[in-house]
Design a protein that fits this description.
The complex is a heterodimer of chains A (318) and B (257).
Chain A (H helix, E strand, L loop, with lengths): L8 E9 L5 E10 L4 E5 L6 H8 L7 E6 L2 E2 H10 L1 E4 L11 H11 L4 H14 L15 H13 L5 E5 L7 H16 L3 E5 L3 H7 L2 E6 L2 E7 H6 L3 E8 L14 E5 L2 E7 L4 H10 L4 E6 L3 H22 L1
Parallel strand pairs in A: 3-8, 3-9, 6-7, 7-8
Antiparallel strand pairs in A: 1-2, 1-4, 4-5, 9-10, 11-13, 11-14, 12-13
Chain B lengths: L2 H21 L1 H4 L1 H17 L1 H4 L1 E2 L2 E2 H32 L2 H5 L5 H30 L7 H25 L3 H17 L12 H7 L3 H14 L6 H25 L6
Antiparallel strand pairs in B: 1-2
Helix pairs in contact in B: 1-7, 3-5, 3-7, 5-7, 5-8, 5-9, 5-11, 7-8, 8-11, 8-12, 11-12
The chains are: A alpha/beta (318), B mainly alpha (257).
Chain lengths: 318, 257
């Protein structure tokens, strides 16, 4: 049974080798505390969806253990499944069914009686702005509505652990932000959330802890704050007023001239931007605006994945 | 899941299955009725009147039980195969697979859904047949028993076909190349007494022969086969298919990576 000091998810030495001998997971360890908002990041094919697939029983693990609120899925998967709600990457509901029927049917699979299921379906469809469409064939919903319908479906049995596999992929900015607000509220109410995403801004905004997975191994598992601390440089794009033909040289600040009005400069964390601006100013260069080249987390992510690639290539060379 | 939750999960699957075939009734309920009406008109009335008696019965009375059974078999099978494969194809089978619903409930739910359509269409065709032929029911228990078991058996077979299928071609191969020949050669349109020794012996390996004859016995009181052998045959096949289908679900074959 669930107790307050148990992790929402404990994964130990989880490995998965597919029939074609592809090693999707090479013995990963992962722990997610109760109430956490956890990001699982990784490039395509890193093993994120395989991990989620194992947690929700769509993928059979090769070895290792997975515990959901202390329940080993090998011992009582049925009980463990009661705690988990899954929002998959692809639309996987019957497009001919109405949203209300999809939710009530899903609740039935968890043994929830129709009157309670109907009440909850109405609650979640309203919260996710879908109530007006509750009685239309779901194939007529927009992409964003279909994503929200999948979130409502995953919540219908009120799981303690919600796993979302790229829930905002292909969703416009306004809708994405409203989904973030909704997920933050669900998390505040006590639901543990695990999120995979390609939008690193999303992970930085929502999540407290993060694991970066690449080629079936966890390359980083820490808090977002600790991760950001590891960032030792940031790349800025400077828009300059006048047209220049040659790239300015500033000692200690590697600069690239990307076009006649734009400079790209990598600034070490321990160096001052004021110094850079004054040195450029001395060369007669006037800066009109400045922005980050990429999200801070994105720079770290790329750095870690590249390091992992180098490491793998190195070990293959050996 | 406790037993009450299991019952809710089971009734949810059955309700969803019935809702599915009722929603698409022009595809699921109307065509078999039209096809059977044509069979009754052509084989029963037009051609049948020239054939005369078969096993001492007017041909329409001989052929009607076989035609009813044919509609039960094809509809039970096609309901489960198309519904389950459709769920696999659209990936919404994952809704069930991620839930705590036990595999045996999934199996029984789909099978009962298939039986609901098979028996529903069978009932409509039976009512239709009363317009063409007069029946005095010989044995209600035999009629009901064999039609239920046959519907069960072909619903199970449809589920197994759907689990193995990876394309829409795969769900039409068995009905076209296996089921239809077995039905047509299963004594629906003729008595196997008409066949020579070799073909009679070969026919005895056709399970549909047993079902059609038992059903015909229940309705009009004649059969080429021992009734107990019919029930034993259908019971044996249903048991084997049930445990094989359950094993496939437990094993996650072609459903889980």
């Amino acid at each position: 049974m669930k107790s307050s000091n148990q992790n929402a998810l404990s994964i130990a030495s989880l490995a998965k080798t597919y029939d074609n001998n592809f090693k999707a997971l090479k013995g990963i360890d992962l722990e997610v505390s109760q109430g956490d908002f956890f990001a699982l990041l990784g490039p395509n094919g890193a093993g994120k969806s395989t991990t989620i697939g194992v947690i929700c029983s769509l993928v059979k693990k090769t070895s290792g253990t997975v515990k959901v609120f202390g329940i080993d899925i090998d011992e009582d998967f049925s009980a463990a499944k009661q705690y988990v709600g899954v929002v998959p990457q692809e639309f996987n509901f019957n497009q001919f069914e109405k949203p209300i029927d999809i939710l009530i049917t899903q609740a039935g699979y968890y043994g929830i009686p129709v009157p309670i299921a109907t009440e909850r379906a109405e609650k979640y469809l309203k919260q996710l702005g879908l109530w007006e469409k509750h009685n239309v064939p779901s194939r007529s919903l927009s992409g964003g509505m279909k994503r929200r319908l999948m979130i409502a479906r995953a919540l219908i049995h009120e799981p303690q652990l919600l796993v979302l596999d790229e829930p905002t992929a292909g969703v416009d900015i306004e809708l994405r932000r409203s989904m973030w607000t909704f997920l933050e509220e669900i998390n505040r109410q006590g639901t543990t959330i695990i999120l995979t995403t390609h939008y690193l801004e999303e992970a930085e905004r929502l999540c407290r802890n993060i694991a970066i997975i690449d080629k079936g191994t966890i390359v980083q598992n820490t808090s977002i704050k600790n991760l950001i601390k590891q960032l030792n440089k940031e790349t800025f794009i400077l828009d300059i007023k006048q047209e220049i033909k040659t790239c300015p040289v500033v000692s200690g600040y590697p600069i690239v001239l990307t076009d006649s009005h734009t400079l790209e400069v990598a600034v070490d964390k321990n160096k001052s931007l004021n110094q850079l601006f004054s040195m450029l100013s001395e060369q007669g260069i006037e800066i009109v605006s400045m922005r980050n080249k990429a999200n801070r987390l994105e720079e770290l992510f790329i750095d870690m994945v590249e390091k992992n690639l180098d490491k793998n290539e190195g070990s293959q060379d050996e | 899941m406790n037993s009450q939750q299991q019952w809710i999960a089971f009734s949810t699957i059955v309700r969803r299955e019935i809702r599915r075939f009722m929603r698409i009734w022009p595809q699921t309920l109307v065509p078999p009725v039209i096809t059977m009406a044509l069979y009754f008109v052509i084989f029963g009335k037009l051609v049948g009147s020239r054939i005369g008696d078969m096993s001492s019965l007017p041909y329409i009375q001989f052929v009607a039980p076989g035609l009813i059974m044919m509609s039960v078999i094809t509809n039970s099978y096609s309901n489960v195969v198309s519904s389950f494969f459709g769920s696999k194809f659209q990936s919404n089978i994952e809704e069930l697979l991620v839930s705590p619903t036990p595999n045996w409930i999934i199996l029984v739910g789909y099978v009962v859904g298939g039986m609901a359509r098979g028996l529903g269409v069978g009932f409509i065709v039976t009512v239709l047949s009363l317009y063409f032929a007069d029946f005095s029911l010989n044995s209600l228990p035999v009629t009901i028993g064999i039609v239920l078991m046959t519907s069960l058996m072909f619903s199970l077979a449809g589920l197994i076909n759907a689990i193995f299928a990876s394309s829409f071609d795969d769900i039409s191969i068995i009905p076209t190349f296996v089921l239809t020949p077995l039905i047509y050669l299963g004594g629906v349109f003729y008595s196997i007494e008409m066949l020579s020794g070799f073909w009679q012996t070969l026919s005895m390996f056709n399970p549909i022969l047993y079902m059609v004859n038992a059903f015909r016995y229940g309705m009009v009181g004649i059969t080429d086969i021992n009734i107990m052998a019919s029930f034993a045959m259908v019971g044996l096949f249903s048991t084997i298919l049930f445990f094989f289908a359950l094993w496939l679900l437990e094993n996650g074959s072609r459903l889980r990576n």
